[in-house]
Amino acid sequence: MDRGDGKQDLVAITGIGVLSPFGRGFGALSSGLLECRSCLKPLTIFDSRLDLPPIVAEIANLPEVTDRPGFRLSRTDRLAVLAALDAAEKAGASSDFHESGAVIATTVAGLSEIDPSIASNPARYYRDGGFAAATTYPASHPADAVGAWLGLSGPCWGVSVACASGAIAIGLAASMVLAGEVPMMVAGGSDALAPYTLSGFNSLQALDPEPCRPFDHNRKGLNLGEGAAVFVLETVEHARERNASIFAILRGWAMSNDAFHHTAPDEQGSGLAACMSSAMAMAGVDPDTIAYVNSHGTGTTLNDVAEVKAYETAFRTRSSPLPVSSTKSFFGHCLGAAGALEAAVTIASMRSAALFPTLRLSDPIESPAIDWLMGKSHRQPVPLGMTVSAGFGGSNAALIFELPGGELLGDLGAV
To answer: Which of 125, 155, 359, 414 has a beta carbon 3.0–4.6 Å from 130's, enabling a disulfide?
Structure first.
């Protein structure tokens, strides 16, 4: 948005809240990634009723949320509210924060509350108490809950565009901030593990019975995870006016649709490639300036090949191989929260000056365009990073972050 002095305003990230299988907080996420700790293990928090406990990344001992009259919270809601409360606290006080809104992504929402017994006798299930849980089913409910707990009077709405939802929510919120529609926005994604989704992906034969290995020739599928990441967004000018710390700048973003198939990606990755190119154009950067890409990288046969082709197209003019990794190898695929969590990962990479690997990657898909990050994390400046998301139905999103000026850079250790 032009400020009237010939300069373009930018979107600042002034608050970050994260609930991940590593624990609560952006610092816990950063430490887990730096130490290369895999969170994937057999499910324990409920009975999936599958033949064997699936490999997942679950959050143990999820904190409770103080009750609020008129609201019942699902596990997905609790994750969103806790992350949003932390993000708002990090962003600090602002006199106009209550005028802000929220865009929260989810695919599971309150379906995490459905008990498998519903299949045998739905009427009895709802009669015995299941009806109360049904109030949490709408995809808008996490956003409604965040708005209520933070006291936001601006627009609060949910986004549910499959696995690109979290990144799309951030892009939509950034557009609203730049347009001057709200002073600040709270945006991100949240999804909980649920019998419903595990059963669905199992029926698709998409689950890896072992910890996943994205982009490896021996990949067998994905593992599901759970979590939430929520950000406070405002213009850099607004952040400077209130002397707020800036964790990162959202330099560019884009969204696209393959218009190809209801589950499979475009085989050439053309929609995703166009999305990344559009994000770079908006950011005003060329492919050589991107120091790291946090990929979608699910570990499924079709996605990983199409994604490689997308990188080869979007970065075809790059003079050196592109550093790429999939951190779903750490904490699984968190569905509607994935794009938001991986945005937090990208910012963690930049602020830690470190490149995180794809765990268990030993025989990667051959591509001269890609520098596959394997083995351990290693220190390297990451001034500009991109995160990429894709979803069923052909939805794509790309976000580009950069480090802010040194005078406003906060202390990572306190986050």
So the answer is: 125
Catalytic residue among 39, 141, 275, 333: 333
Residue 155 has a pLDDT of: 95
Which residue in 37, 85, 41 sits closest to 63, CA to CA?
85
Catalytic residue chosen out of the listed positions 156, 163, 275, 334: 163
Q: Which helix (H) or strand (E) holds 15?
A: strand 11-20
- What is the rounded CA–CA span in Å between residue 197 and residue 337? 14
Give per-residue pLDDT as tens, 204-228: 999 999 999 999 999 999 999 999 9
Strand partners, 103: 157, 187
Structural domain harbouring 272 = 251-405
| 262 noted as active-site residue | no
Measured distance CA(358)–CA(14) in Å, rounded: 28
The verdict on whether 333 is a catalytic residue reads yes
Q: What is the CATH number of the domain that holds 378?
A: 3.40.47.10
Between CA 291 and CA 34 the distance in angstroms is 17
Residue 156 annotated among the catalytic residues of the structure:
no
Which residue in 309, 325, 314, 410 sits closest to 372, CA to CA? 325
Residues 205 and 107 occupy one common structural domain:
yes
Q: Which of 39, 141, 238, 296 is catalytic?
A: 296
Claim to verify: residue 32 and residue 173 sit in the same structural domain = yes
**Please, are residues 167 and 397 in contact by the beta-carbon 8 Å criterion?**
yes
Q: Taking the model in full, what pTM does it have?
A: 0.93
**For the chain, what is the domain count?**
2
Q: Is 150 in a helix, a strand, or coil?
A: helix
Q: What residue ranges in 114-206 does DSSP mark as E strands?
A: 156-159, 185-191
* Residue 2 included in any domain: no
Residue 233 and residue 162 share a domain: yes
Is residue 54 a part of any domain in this protein? Answer: yes
Separation in Å, CA 148 to CA 103, 137, 387 = 13, 17, 30
